Amino acid sequence: MNDKTTPPSNPAETVVSAAAGLTRRRLVRAGLTAAPVMAALQSNTVLAGGSKGFGHGCIRPSTFSSLKAANWTISQGRDIKGNFVCRPYSHWKNNFPHKFKNVYFLSEVTKCNRDPRPYDNRKTYKKLKMRDVFELRDDDTDARLARYVLAAFLSADAAGAGSDNVWLTKRQCHEIWNGRGNWKPFAGATWDLNQTMNYFEVIFARG
């Protein structure tokens, strides 16, 4: 299957899976090779049902790393959990939780404390309420990371403490923000900013 040189004739083929929502464009943007992912996911019936596999494209960092290391091939019979509460920032922008209405992004609630612009009174993050993060017009790395982290935080809150459906925990969210994308996603692994942003680009491919 020579997917790398021949573009698909059917636009629907650009989608890795109807459930996954991972497109070639997004995968390339995230620094991943599209062809192996397409081949692996299209040929694996585990992902076809929608209730298994990637679900909405949301997988934990450990699963993401293991699949990437295996060239995106999925062993026979493997069940990849995909029913996490994992909603993109476009969802939260339109369905913002009332209980966080007056909470600041940099606060004891989120435990996020890093201000990317501490000396710029016009753009300091200290003035941003949580909801304001989704209204940022900047498209720099910190603004995009803030949107991703806050969407993950609100998803974790919606899942509930101790839930098996928590995709990233609240603790992980503030570790990612405070470390500017440098953090330990699971035992024995350390991700830098580029790896973290690539991961979020794939997970939030549709939002």
What do you see in this structure?
This protein is mainly alpha-helical and 207 residues long. Helix content is 35%, strand content 0%. The chain is built from eight helices and no strands. Helix 6 packs antiparallel against helix 7. The longest helix is centred in the last third of the chain and has 19 residues, at 141-159. Mean pLDDT is 77; it is low at 1-28 and 30-56.
Note the topology.
Layout: H1 24-29, H2 34-42, H3 61-69, H4 89-94, H5 130-133, H6 141-159, H7 170-178, H8 193-203
Query: How many β-strands, per DSSP?
Result: 0
Strand content: under 5%
Q: What is the terminal separation in angstroms?
A: 30 Å
Let me know the largest β-sheet.
none
Number of helical stretches of at least 4 residues:
8
Which overall shape is indicated by the principal axes computed on the Cα atoms?
A: globular
Could you give the order of the helices and strands?
HHHHHHHH
Radius of gyration: 18 Å
Rounded average pLDDT: 77
Question: Low-confidence runs (pLDDT<50, min 5 residues)?
Answer: 1-28, 30-56
Structural class: mainly alpha
What portion of residues is helical? 25-40%
